[in-house]
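Format is chain and fold; as here:
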Amino acid sequence: MKPIMIEFINNSSEPLYIQLYKNIRDAILSGDIAKGEKLPSLRSLSKSLSVSMTTTQLAYDQLLVEGYIISKPQSGYYAADVFSAGDDRDMQKIMAPLPESVLADPDQPPYICDPDCFDFNKWKKCSSKIFNEHWGLLLYGSDPQGEGALRHEIAKYVYTSRGVTCSPEQIIIGAGTQQITGQLCRILPKMDINHVSVESPGYLPVQNSFRDSGFSISHVSVGSDGIEIERLPVNISTAVYVSPSNQFPTGAVMPVGRRRQLLRWASDNDSIIIEDDYDSELRYFGRPVPALRSLDNEGRVVYLGSFSSTLFPAIKISYMILPPSMAEIFSRTKGDYAQTCSKAEQLTLALFMEEGYYYTGIRKLRNLYSQKLSLTLEAFAKYGDERVVPVNTHSGINLIINFATEKTADELCDLAKSAGLHMVPFSRITESHAASLIFYYSKLPVKMIDPLVGRFLALLKS
């Protein structure tokens, strides 16, 4: 057993466990740690490197998740055979880690997720079953609308969790909300709709999708009950994009009375409501609010959903539920579309849902993220002051942090990075010039929240 040597960079933006994980990963890929070689125990490695057991455990957990090491009960950890065939040196060129400049994109949420947030073993079990028992399905092309098995599972899921009734034929699957929105932008003009009202403040990437597709855009202000319906255009056929169950970025929830008022507006003006239900299942106080689509009796609501917050970052699967009349428009032209989601991933997700693993995972996520949110708010209360105010504290996977400071948002991000936290300027996602940041607290392991938030706020005060 070779000793693992690493010189930690204490003032790095990367937590110690990430530095340790990368060091061991690179040693396995380079052959410095041979396949089958036993790694030091958690206790001995922690002692030799003078780091906590938590740091070592988190590093090993990440290596386990990514398949670089294996765990043998009552024996310990061993380097996995990451080169199963062919010449190792050739494979190393293929498997070499990406440059740090590629991985460390400051505009993106962290690419590494907390291993506790997802049951990768269950996912691998479903994936293996698809390749071992249903591989014949992969010999055929993908359905432009999405795999029927997954659409069937989504129809069951939205009915039980969001109160939405639909058939699989009304569901369209794509790689992310922006891609799905792009398909919607091809359907709406066929209904003589070329104008969209959007929330202000709101989610810029989707707004840009409409603008890039040639739609005229109106910005409608958001109040404590969601979008201000009284300011929506009248006497024209139009569309409005809303997030009534968890408005981004304010966190406003639209009450049932206002939802019915919005549906009346759509009916009176022969218009369409685009409901983005992102993160609605991750609500930590009270029961999730039923979807606006569940109240729609006239076929006025297009429902957008996504798995990006409840699976893991590498899986980009979103879906759109069209009213019957719009689904008919899509069906006439769906041959013009190419499916952007991996067929294997769609079938794996369908099996993952059919076996009940997804539902179990959602319950686990709610509990885990609720704990992380509470710890994050406690840390800001303990180490912060009135100049630092977290908002949108009831749901989702991130917090908006408002700062009363002369520092710019970019300067605050640099400060957070030096403390080991990943934050993004509010202005990168929504229209804002305030010194506000988006903090992805859900990506942090539980035991790292308090010390890292404390370090950041200490730097802010110094």
